[in-house]
């Protein structure tokens, strides 16, 4: 519901998978600043594996985990099930009802949160090191024995329904839904994560328990822990929290999507600002030319203040406050998306400039100087602002696991970037940017803008 207030071009870029690019560009500040700090692989007696960074700088422990699945596992007609479930884990578990559970959380000095994406259900907890026994016990109850009592179901459902109704009057929310329906038509990615008024109203406690049982399994679990805890203690906590889950869940198979590009989607509203979104074919995270594509994107629009799109759209013409591009990688889809917002009477001009910049990159590729600068930036910029806490470090480690990048990825990353050649970047630019994109226009019809 918080996302509904964000502009379409920003919210869509975030929602489609910026996570993969963040993993590519970010290096843990704790690891770069303290050479002695290392990522340990910890495996419990029951076979639960976690990546651990011991850090006793502050007496806090951060836990982050993910189960494969997400909203793609919502049964047809039950859209919004994963979203409703994640709002209920701190609303009672085991023999504790909602009020008792919340009181215990406060007493333990812990914070717990769950959320879902298309491809996973995430959980996290931050706790004081000297109260970790109480905190881990509450996490154990939430993971293994959620109650899904009717009172909390009705209350959280009402909040979700209020957000859906509000979104029906918001141009950017309507646009995001139409974009997903058009680009991913027929695929689970086309469905609204929050669900519809009808689907959310139909959800029951039985649906929630069945979804929990199908998705919460050790075989699809990824865990990272950062903070004041040692490996021996963590092994015991892993078994307590996750060890009694089934080895395998019952996930429905999800096919890879074939995004439908080459179309124009218009959401017509009479307003002074028009949002523009373009989507081109992407490059899978495990593809041999991924690093070439990531560097090409950095030059095109990922570098923000130094990119070609920023220079041509904002610096030279003042058409927009900002413009960016990004590789949007989900488990079953890959896109390269360009997003901006401009004055509605200059939207057609802005779209033309974007297309010209894209065409130039597709036909000539970057220069050697641009590639060298992009390499230096991506190797040297560790984005400390995005990894400034134990919780954010744990989140990054979980994403590295999900992407299958290996526990030593940070050590290998610079070598992958440095090995990319100019010819490889030119080739991927031609491959990706020569396609006719899907274009979303949110605002007055372009024909009305003179």
Kindly name the structural category. alpha+beta
Shape: globular
Count of helix runs: 18
Work out the number of β strands.
11
Share of helical residues: 40-55%
User: What is the C-alpha radius of gyration, as a whole number of Å?
Assistant: 23 Å
Mean pLDDT: 90
Listing every helix as H and every strand as E from the N terminus to the C terminus, the arrangement reads HHHEEEHHEEHHHHHEHEEHHEEHHHHHE
User: Main sheet, how many strands, which sense, barrel?
Assistant: 6 strands, mixed
Q: What ranges have pLDDT less than 50 throughout 5 or more consecutive residues? A: 1-37
Strand order of the largest sheet: 1-2-6-3-5-4
Q: Provide the β-strand percentage band.
A: 15-25%
Separation, N- and C-terminal Cα atoms:
36 Å
């Amino acid at each position: 519901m918080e996302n509904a207030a964000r502009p379409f071009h920003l919210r869509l870029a975030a929602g489609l998978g910026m996570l993969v690019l963040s993993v590519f560009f970010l290096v843990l500040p704790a690891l770069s600043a303290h050479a002695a700090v290392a990522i340990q692989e910890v495996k419990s007696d029951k076979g639960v594996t976690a990546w651990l960074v011991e850090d006793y700088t502050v007496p806090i422990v951060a836990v982050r985990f993910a189960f494969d699945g997400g909203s793609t596992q919502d049964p047809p007609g039950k859209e919004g099930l994963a979203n409703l479930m994640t709002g209920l884990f701190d609303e009672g578990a085991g023999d504790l009802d909602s009020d008792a559970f919340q009181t215990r959380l406060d007493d333990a000095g812990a914070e717990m949160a769950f959320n879902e994406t298309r491809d996973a259900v995430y959980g996290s907890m931050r706790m004081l090191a000297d109260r970790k026994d109480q905190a881990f016990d509450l996490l154990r109850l939430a993971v293994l024995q959620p109650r899904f009592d009717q009172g909390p179901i009705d209350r959280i459902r009402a909040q979700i329904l209020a957000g859906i109704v509000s979104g029906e009057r918001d141009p950017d929310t309507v646009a995001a839904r139409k974009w997903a329906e058009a680009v991913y038509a027929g695929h689970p990615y086309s469905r609204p994560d929050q669900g519809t008024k009808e689907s959310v109203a139909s959800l029951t406690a039985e649906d929630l328990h069945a979804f929990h049982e199908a998705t919460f399994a050790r075989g699809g679990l990824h865990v990272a822990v950062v903070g004041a805890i040692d490996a021996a203690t963590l092994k015991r906590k892993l078994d307590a929290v996750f060890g009694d889950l089934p080895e395998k869940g019952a996930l429905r198979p999800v096919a890879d999507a074939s995004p439908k590009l080459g179309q124009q989607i218009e959401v017509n509203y009479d307003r002074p600002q028009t949002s523009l979104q373009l989507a081109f074919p992407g490059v899978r995270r495990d593809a041999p030319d991924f690093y070439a594509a990531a560097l090409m994107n950095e030059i095109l629009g990922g570098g923000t203040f130094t990119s070609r799109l920023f220079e041509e759209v904002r610096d030279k013409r003042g058409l927009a406050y900002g413009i960016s591009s990004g590789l949007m990688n989900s488990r079953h889809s890959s896109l390269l998306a360009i997003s901006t917002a401009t004055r509605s009477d200059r939207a057609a001009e802005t779209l033309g400039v974007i297309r010209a910049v894209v065409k130039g990159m597709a036909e000539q590729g970057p220069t050697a100087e641009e590639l060298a600068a992009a390499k230096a930036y991506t190797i040297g910029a560790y984005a400390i602002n995005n990894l400034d806490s134990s919780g954010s470090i744990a989140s990054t480690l979980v994403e590295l696991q999900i992407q299958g990048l290996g526990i030593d990825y940070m050590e290998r990353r610079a070598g992958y970037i440095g090995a990319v050649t100019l010819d490889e970047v030119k080739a991927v630019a031609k491959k990706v940017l020569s396609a006719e994109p899907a274009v979303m226009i949110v605002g007055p019809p372009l024909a009305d803008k003179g």
